[in-house]
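Lab notebook, design round three. We kept the backbone fixed and only want residue identities now. Task for the bench partner: fill in a sequence for the structure below.
Input structure tokens:
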């Protein structure tokens, strides 16, 4: 990665560079590709692309060493390269081929640090000891919130780490797949090891009955000390009944104590939202380096946002350890494209207006930057939406899910992520039920939104990759061990959203 004062060429094969600061038309600067001085032909905002050579109409635009689109008009050297002169190359029905990457030794060479967690009945660790209230149906959302607010005042930060209610609008008026999806995701949350106690709150007449929900919970439904059930239609005073159940859950959960655990037991979710032109260069690149480090230690990293793999999916397929995983990854991509087509939508209706304002031009541009946070470690698992991952495999695990921030962070939480690394260039306060570490792609965002951002990846150019990766790893260990809380936890910015495909009755 070559760097000058104002522009950066990410890969030696790139025919565009990224402006690290706004460029004025007529401004001259050293060319990162060598040769003659590069003169800006337009005003170019920071995070946006500048052509390093003349690019003919139809020629590919290369960034990250990969095609991110094609020129829709002739582009002169030094010109602004963006939506006005670039088109997508995405195809609805591409062909995929398995070319497995060369095997490498991913074992971490140093001493693997320990974390401190709560050992649960099923053998997994939790990094928080909280009480979660899970409504089976949206009709009891306000009851759940009222109970959570009371219990958090009574027990939060004293007996347990906190009490939260995961409200949603579903659990009734749904059919078929959507009904099963709602039940599965809510049951996955009830099984999450960060919850030392769970209150399942029902109305009593919804489709998502307590009986059906217990079937989704399986053996977890019998863990009566950890999971309690309340059908509000059967209780004269649901608030009083709820308080009594929460008091019992808090008393039991309060007996849990942290003990040493292996960092290899950690499951980390990877997410980006509100991305900009720096995301793939700083925050996602840094997260990718950390991902490789964690995977080398034996930890697992979940990568989702399938639509934001479009255009970069082949590189993920080549990292699959087996042909079976490659086939599953192809199905993952193809099925999501079928979902788009079934709703008469094109697969490339992305990036968002905020992404474009930040310098991201096409979905390929966004995807190639997005997958950077998955590093280069091998893909060792492919999971459908609602499936819980099998911990202990290490490596990158692909999870079916959309790019939507709330839906994808919920999907990773339900799959078993203990915490989520969330990179952002534009900024967002959103958080998952689990600790959500916000990593800014630029220092300006970190300084402006200190109440949102936990870590500044914009310092990468000054501090260097290795030093910053070490600092981020230290933060992750502190968060996992309960020594630090993330901004989303401190702010109470935690919520869920469930994927919906069909009709509402």
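Proposed sequence:
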């Amino acid at each position: 990665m070559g760097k000058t004062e104002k522009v950066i060429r990410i890969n030696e094969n790139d025919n565009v560079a990224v402006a690290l600061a706004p460029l004025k038309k007529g401004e001259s600067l050293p060319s990162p590709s060598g040769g003659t001085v590069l003169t800006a032909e337009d005003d170019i905002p920071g995070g946006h692309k500048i052509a390093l050579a003349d690019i003919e109409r139809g020629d590919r635009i290369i960034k990250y060493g990969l095609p991110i689109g094609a020129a829709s008009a002739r582009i002169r050297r030094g010109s602004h390269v963006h939506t006005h002169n670039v088109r997508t190359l995405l195809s609805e029905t591409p062909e995929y081929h398995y070319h497995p990457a060369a095997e490498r030794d991913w074992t971490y060479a140093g001493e693997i640090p320990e974390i401190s967690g709560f050992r649960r009945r099923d053998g997994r660790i939790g990094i928080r000891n909280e009480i979660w209230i899970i409504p089976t149906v949206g009709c009891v959302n306000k009851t759940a919130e009222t109970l959570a607010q009371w219990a958090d005042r009574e027990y939060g930060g004293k007996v347990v780490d906190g009490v939260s209610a995961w409200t949603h609008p579903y659990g009734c008026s749904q059919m078929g797949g959507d009904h099963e999806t709602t039940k599965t995701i809510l049951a996955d949350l009830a099984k999450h090891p960060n919850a030392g106690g769970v209150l399942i709150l029902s109305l009593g007449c919804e489709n998502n009955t307590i009986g059906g929900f217990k079937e989704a919970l399986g053996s977890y439904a019998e863990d009566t000390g950890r999971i309690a059930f309340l059908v509000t239609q059967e209780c004269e005073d649901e608030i009083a009944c709820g308080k009594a159940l929460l008091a019992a859950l808090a008393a039991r959960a309060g007996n849990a104590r942290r003990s040493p655990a292996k960092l290899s037991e950690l499951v980390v979710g990877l997410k980006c939202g509100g991305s900009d032109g720096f995301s793939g260069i700083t925050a996602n690149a840094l997260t990718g380096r950390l991902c490789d480090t964690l995977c080398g230690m034996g930890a697992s990293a979940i990568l989702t946002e399938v639509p934001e793999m479009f255009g970069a999916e082949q590189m993920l397929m080549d990292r699959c350890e087996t042909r079976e995983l490659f086939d599953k990854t192809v199905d993952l991509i193809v099925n999501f494209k079928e979902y788009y087509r079934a709703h008469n939508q094109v697969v490339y209706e992305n990036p968002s207006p905020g992404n474009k304002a930040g310098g991201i031009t096409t979905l390929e541009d966004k995807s190639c930057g997005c997958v950077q946070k998955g590093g280069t470690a091998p893909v060792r698992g492919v999971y459908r939406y609602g499936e819980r991952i099998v911990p202990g495999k290490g490596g990158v695990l692909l999870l079916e899910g959309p790019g939507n921030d709330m839906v994808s962070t919920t999907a990773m939480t339900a799959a078993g992520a203990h915490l989520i690394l969330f990179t952002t260039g534009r900024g967002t306060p959103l958080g998952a039920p689990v600790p959500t570490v916000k990593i800014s792609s630029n220092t300006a965002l970190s300084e402006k939104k200190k109440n949102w951002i936990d870590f500044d990846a914009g310092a990468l150019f000054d501090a260097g990759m290795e030093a910053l990766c070490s600092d981020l790893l230290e933060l992750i260990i502190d968060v996992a061990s309960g020594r630090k809380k993330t901004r989303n936890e401190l702010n109470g910015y935690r919520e869920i959203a469930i994927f919906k495909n069909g009709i509402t009755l």
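Keep this in mind before ordering anything: The first strand starts at residue 2 and ends at 3.
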